[in-house]
Amino acid sequence: EKPQCSAEAVVEFVRANFVLPCGGEVDASSAKELNSYDDRNFHVRATSGAEYTLKVHNGVESQNQPLLDAQSAMMRHLTASGVKCPCPVVGVDGHDIARLNLALRQGARDARRDHAVRVLTWVDGSIADDCRDAHTPAFMRELGAFLGRMVQALESFSHPGAERWHQWDNANALTVRKFMDAVEDPARRAIAEGVLDDFEAKVIPMAGSLRRGATHNDANEQNVIVRLETSGECAGPFRATPVGIIDFGDINVSWRVNDVAIACAYYTLNKRDPVGDAARCLAGFETEFPLTDAERSIVPTLMAARLVVSCVLGAYSAARDPANKEYLLTTQKPGWEVLGALRAAGDEEILRRFATARSER
Length: 361
Hints:
361 residues; alpha+beta; globular
């Protein structure tokens, strides 16, 4: 239920329902839509020069006020803990959320629905996906350390709204079996089924021993903000430093190890040495948030499980939403390639490389 709205309509609504903390009002001509799986996000500038994200939540999430409250609370908690992320702007009625009534797409059961709208402070920098040439071994360790600090900060956070069943929770990976028919290639389907078989054999028996808590649950390469440093003699970036985390749409309570496993999964895409990059990210993470032996032993399976969930759900969603196909299939081809590489390497070799990376820190 992606919102059906224009930037102009959202800007007009925000002007009427929010007072920007830095003064001024949103400049409608500055609005630029950002990629999103099922929400609408617009980057805007205010007449004061400050930048914001205007976020219109999808129709399903808009009905879950406890989750919206949990997202706000987590953003404020991380900010107070020194982890840079967006923060909600309070509306004229004293709440973080205002409700915008929108028509649903043609064929939907209800003609209209209220959608939750937020104004979020802007985290300055570039998304990590835009500077892949700067994903050096040092960057991967720094990424892991940044995420380790985030998970450490979340140890002292809890909110009942984050307690939910979520399809994108790695703990629920086995449920994508019901969507497997959307994967048309038999070889790819066999890879996915093999990963889920491993998950059932290796992860499920350990579930009771894994630490649980609130998780961000989606530290992919489009949700980490980096600061780029360049020199006058170099046209491109020579160093990227992780500085912020965005997009709190997938937060939930689950296994703490998921946050680093998910990052390791996504940051292996389109890489020459995916296992090496994952190993360095995990090594950096453990400098800030050490894993237990049990948690570390299942990281390879959790990485693969997240890619299977992404690829299978991407194929299923693309079949249902051809107009959004390009974005929905972002991780498809490279995701299958990494899954093949992980399966070819095997857990024993991946864990050996994890150990080597830890010894080099």
